[in-house]
Amino acid sequence: MLGPTAHVDTFTRDNLPAETDWPVIELGSLDYPEYLNAAVELTDRMVERGFGDHTALIGHGRRRTYKELTDWSNRLANVLVEDYGLKPGNRVLIRSANNPAMIACWLAVTKAGGVAVNTMPMLRAGELAKVVDKAEIRLALCDTRLMEDLVACAKESDFLKSVIGFDGTANHDAELDRAALNKSVRFEAIKTGRDDVALLGFTSGTTGVPKATMHFHRDILAIADAYAKNILQVRPSDVFVGSPPIAFTFGLGGLAVFPLRFGAAAALIETATPPHLVKLIETYKATICFTAPTAYRAMLAAMEEGADLSSLRIAVSAGETLPAPIYESWIARTGVPILDGIGSTEMLHVFISNRLDDHQPGSTGVPVPGYEAKIVDDDFSEVPRGTLGRLVVRGPTGCRYMADDRQHVYVQHGWNVTGDTFSQDETGHFHFAARSDDMIVSAGYNIAGPEVEAALLSHDSVQECAVVGVRDEARGEIVAAYVVLVSGHVGDDAMVQRLQTHVKSVIAPYKYPRLVKFVDTLPKTQTGKVQRFQLRDASKSS
Q1: Is residue 397's pLDDT more than 80?
Q2: What CA–CA distance (Å, rounded) separates 348 from 393?
Q3: What is the rounded average pLDDT of the residues 235-259?
Q4: Are the beta carbons of 22 and 401 closer than 8 angstroms?
Q5: Among candidate residues 510, 351, 354, 366, the one with its CA nearest the CA of residue 424
Q6: Do residues 368 and 353 touch, judged by C-beta distance below 8 A?
Q7: Is 426 exposed, middle or buried (0-12, 13-18, 19+ CB in 10 A)?
Q8: Could you report the per-residue pLDDT of 443-502, keeping only the tens digit for each?
Q9: Sequence-distant (≥ 6) Cβ neighbours of residue 260 within 8 angstroms
Q10: Which of 76, 20, 25 is nearest to 215 (CA)?
C-alpha cells in the first residue's frame, strides 16, 4: 500500500504499474519514516550530524564541504520554485557530465519535490526527445557546454518549454547560477512521502521506446544502507572516484549517494579515461574506485610504470563482468579486493556482490543483505546447484516501469527477472554465464561468451576482446571473437592459430572461437559495457 504523497503533479504516481504487478518488496531492517526527502538526508541532515566542514565533492580542482553543498543546493531549489514555478511531482531533465554542479542540481530538484531525470551528454536531440515525450518533461537544466542538442529538442517538443543553463565548471557563470546568488541558503524542503517517485532512470538502450524505471525516495537511501554500508563498509575518510556517468543509476549511487550518505567525499572527473582516473586517485588519495575491467588492466600497466595507487582499499568492477585473469592480476599486484557484482537500472544498484572477506575469480558473489536470489528454469522451478538457468531476485528495491507493458516481462511471480543466465555453486555463490540473449548455441552445445573471453584475456597478447555468436549453416552458430591486441603484436593468421590453440588449452576445446577478427577498438556504452549487438550486426553484413 502506497504511503502519503506530496506531489501536486501526480503524473508519476498515476503511471506506476498496478501494485499487483510489482515485485515483492522486502525492506527487512530498512525502516524509513512515512515522510522522507532523500536529498535532505544527504545534505542538511549530514550538516546537522556534524559533517558540515567535511569535504563532500571535489571537481575542477575545487573542494566543496557538506555545508557548502547544502547551501548551494538550497539556493538552487529556491530558484526552481520561485523563478521557474517548479511544483512537487514535476519532472526535471538534467543534462551534464560528471561534475559537482550536476549533483547540486539533482539535489535541488529532489529537495523541491521534483522528479529528476538525469541524462548523458552523449544523447542527441532525437534521443532526448524520446525521454522528454515519455516523461512529459517541461523543464530542463543543462550544462551550458551541452545546450545545442537540448535546445534543438525543445524547438520540436510538445512538452519541453524551458531549458535553463548552469555552469558545469567552477565559475558559477550561467543563468541558473546567477539567479541562485540572490537566493537564501535556507530552503524548506518539500515534505515528500517515502513512496513518492524521486528519480526516473531510463535504461541505457535508446532504440525503440525507452523504458523508464521509477525509484522512490526510500529506494535512494536503501541502496546505500544495503550495499554501500554492508559491502563497501563506507567510512567518512573514504574518497570515491569512478568512470560511470552520474546520469546512470550505477554512477549516481557510486559517486553521489554512497559518499554523501556516510560523510565521505567524491572526486569527480568529466572524462574518466584510465590515465585521468590514475591521476585523480594519486592526487586525492582515493580509496574506493568504480570502473570497468579494462580500466583496471590499464591501471596495472600504469603501476608498472610508477603510478602510486596505494591509497585504494576497494576496487569495484563496473559495466562488464570481471574476467578471472584481470581479477588474478589485480590481486597479485595490489592485494586490494576487487569486487565484482551485478546490478541493474531496474533494481537501482547492485544486488549480488563479492565481499571484502569473500571474493574469488569468476564469481559474482552472494546476495547483498536484504536481497535474495535464485536460479530458475523456464517453468520458474528452481534448478539444481551447478545448473545454468535464469537469475531472479527480490529485496528492498525492485522494477517499476512507468506506463510500460514490459513490466510483465521483468517481473514474474513477484520476482525480478534480470535477463541473465547464471549458475549457483554448492557454497551459494553465483556465477555469471551470459546475458540470456547472449548464450551461443553451437552444434547443440551451450557456450557462454564471457568464459571464452576470459580464456582469451589470459593470453599475453590480448588487450581486450568480445565474443558473440555468428550464424553458421552447419553448426547453427559458431563462436566469433573480436580481439584488440596489445601494442606491438600483429593480427595475422599465425596469431589466430595461437589464440585458438590457447583457448583450447584453457577451456573445453569445443568452445574455441572458430572466427577471430582483429579490431582497433570495441564498441561500448558510456558505462563501459561492450555493445555486442553491434558486433553481431557487423558479422551479418560482412
Answers
A1: yes
A2: 13
A3: 96
A4: no
A5: 366
A6: yes
A7: exposed
A8: 877 788 888 999 999 999 999 999 999 988 888 889 999 999 999 999 999 999 999 999
A9: 42, 43, 46, 56, 66, 266
A10: 25
